[in-house]
TrEMBL record:
Transmembrane helix in keyword set: yes
Membrane topology note: Multi-pass membrane protein
Superkingdom, natural source: Eukaryota
Primary location: membrane
Entry annotated with the keyword Transmembrane helix: yes
Subcellular location, record wording: Cell membrane
Protein name, entry field: G-protein coupled receptors family 1 profile domain-containing protein
A single Gene Ontology CC term: plasma membrane
The species this protein was found in: Hemibagrus wyckioides
Family: Belongs to the G-protein coupled receptor 1 family.
Ranges annotated as spanning the membrane: 45-75, 87-107, 119-145, 166-188, 221-242, 272-291, 311-334
Keywords recorded for this protein, A-Z: Cell membrane, Disulfide bond, G-protein coupled receptor, Glycoprotein, Membrane, Receptor, Transducer, Transmembrane, Transmembrane helix
Domain spans labelled G-protein coupled receptors family 1 profile: 66-331
Amino acid sequence: MGERNSTTWTQGQSPQDPLMASYDFTLDYDIPVDQIPDTTQGRAFFVSTIIIAMVLVCIMLVCGIGNCLFIVTLVRYKKLRNITNLLIGNLAVSDFLVAVVCCPFLVDYYVVKQLSWDHGIFLCISINYLRTVSLYVSTNALLAIAVDRYMAIVHPLKPRMKYHTAYWLIFGVWILPILISVPSAYFATEHEYPQGAVAHGSKIFCAQIWSADQQLLYRSYFVFILVVEFVGPVAVMASCYARISRELWFKNVPGFPTEQLERRLRRRRRTVVALIAVLVAYVLCWAPYYGFALLRDFYPSVITRERNSLVAFYIIECIAMSNGVINTLCFVSVRNNAAKCLKKATCSQWHVVSRNATITAVKVVVEGDMRTSSLKVTEDVECTRIR
């Protein structure tokens, strides 16, 4: 269910690889159809299916539960709604939507039905669009967090971002992906292809399909996305964290270093280390995906002759999608006070429940003792005495 630059294959051809199912190879790439290997059979395909199933289930559990807890905590506790946490909240919302809405359909498509979409054209378009928007929202949120940390640490004397400005920034974090992801919805469609070497039925392929006469348009769009949503943001984030690291590790703090300043410096360093780890994980997870897409769309003949091209795509997509799990663990569970507040609230609620249960038990015992005597005692009197 990714991006595909393709044409309608001619009548009588039976490409076995859904990744390349809609290419007109003899017309565009001069690759005979009988040389296109069947990558949906064999042990490698089976192993990749198991791997992607485990990754998708992990995403649903970690991103679904973890981000849900973070969002609920952010809504409940007003003191946590600082600028940085609001930006992290956008990241949590986008990962939560993918985990709850997209992943169940992806499990059915990739694992259960093994590359067959049975949920209609509307959901095919919606899932493709939502996944694309979520990816770009995550990128923009990480970029906004990096810039916010840069302004707070490198330029501490400048006024911090106001909430009114932050809300406009959050609006931009969402509106840009919503607009530039429109082609992923417009060109997403269903395509039926034969199943197996001898057609005993068919499967339905759900992906973006661009026709051959739109090849230049698609490649221009891909380069635009690559620059705007990967290369550019990574370069800016790397520059911000390089300046922040220089400020925190290689610059002397003016004045006498008190214990409070040292503690604050250590806390900032830990935060920056976590953010740099998130950036490195983002690059390691998504660089292979963009690299494979670049190779697929500009040099497709290299991929189509490889038997395990679909298996490679499975593994690469697993690595890319697992970035949401890393973000959740770093931002929600490790480097944020929301987890502490949630734990504190849970403990407080447990103490309240335990206290109410104890009061109820004492009340029952006292009522039983009083009813055995000749005194006439009402329930209100008992409650008043217990309190």
